[in-house]
């Protein structure tokens, strides 16, 4: 099982653990528990959280609840958040997904879009006024907010795709045998971000599928893909040579070496092309994701 393909049982377990963790946090604060729950829900909107940002969300959206400032400390030090850097926190994906669903249920989609717009302006203000903040962190915060808004979602998808393409271009300028620790780390970071934003990127399935493939390749769990391309808002995404597995040539029953090329269109339809080595033409057909995966497995076998 890959990190992005869960059966129903595993998904239910993750959701149950997230719910139990949130309920324990809420119950531990007695009569103010429900206000603490709402604070956690709003804190789930950004991908990463700082004490300053949590305080901003608290005062901007939840001041009427009368929660003391120590509630922010309680949340930051709780099991709902993990420290990822100095004064930088993130929620486990299952916990964040559960709290966002809770926020959507209680506050509604319009309120979530209002929070997203405020977060966009907040991060732009930080970018102008604090030159010491990490550019990647600010850009990630922007993407996380932009995907909630119809007018900015496509822009966010394009910018993520451009970031992937930029790393691919860097790798293309290097020998295949050159070390790629920095680029691997950036691929992993972008793939993780895309996975977290996937529920809001349903209209950009090609980007989500590409990020999932990158994760599998980085984990060494994907074999037999000789090529893969995807189109996202005018940006072409390819798998760098350095990430591609190098299997032995596939041989047909007649002893002819063949190549297998898989590409993904923006509408989520895969095209599988097969041709003999050295030949310009061959067999090509379109499939959905499940059928394409089964065909590739059979051909590799």
Walk me through what this model shows.
This protein is of the alpha+beta class. Among the domains are: 1-125, no CATH class; 237-300, no CATH class. The protein is 54% helix and 12% strand. It contains 11 helices and 8 strands. It has helices at 8-27, 33-43, 51-61, 70-76, 93-107, 109-129, 135-146, 150-172, 181-197, 205-218, 289-300, and strands at residues 82-85, 88-90, 229-232, 235-238, 250-251, 257-264, 270-276, 283-287. The strands form 3 sheets. Strands 5-6-7-8 form a 4-stranded antiparallel beta sheet. The chain has a two-stranded antiparallel sheet with strand order 1-2. Strand 6 and strand 7 form a beta hairpin. Helix 1 (8-27) crosses helix 5, helix 8 (150-172) runs antiparallel to helix 9 and helix 9 (181-197) crosses helix 10. The chain is elongated, with a radius of gyration of 22 Å. Mean pLDDT is 80; it is low at 1-11, 247-257 and 262-270.
Output the keywords:
301 residues, alpha+beta, 54% helix
Q: How would you summarize the topology of this molecule?
A:
Elements: H1 8-27, H2 33-43, H3 51-61, H4 70-76, E1 82-85, E2 88-90, H5 93-107, H6 109-129, H7 135-146, H8 150-172, H9 181-197, H10 205-218, E3 229-232, E4 235-238, E5 250-251, E6 257-264, E7 270-276, E8 283-287, H11 289-300
Antiparallel strand pairs: 1-2, 3-4, 5-6, 6-7, 7-8
Count of alpha/pi helices? 11
Which stretches of 5+ consecutive residues score pLDDT under 50? Answer: 1-11, 247-257, 262-270
**Beta-strand segment tally:** 8
Describe the largest sheet: 4 strands, antiparallel
Strand order of the largest sheet: 5-6-7-8
Integer-rounded radius of gyration: 22 Å
Order of helices and strands: HHHHEEHHHHHHEEEEEEH
Shape: elongated
User: Distance between the terminal alpha carbons, to the nearest Å?
Assistant: 18 Å
Helix content: 40-55%
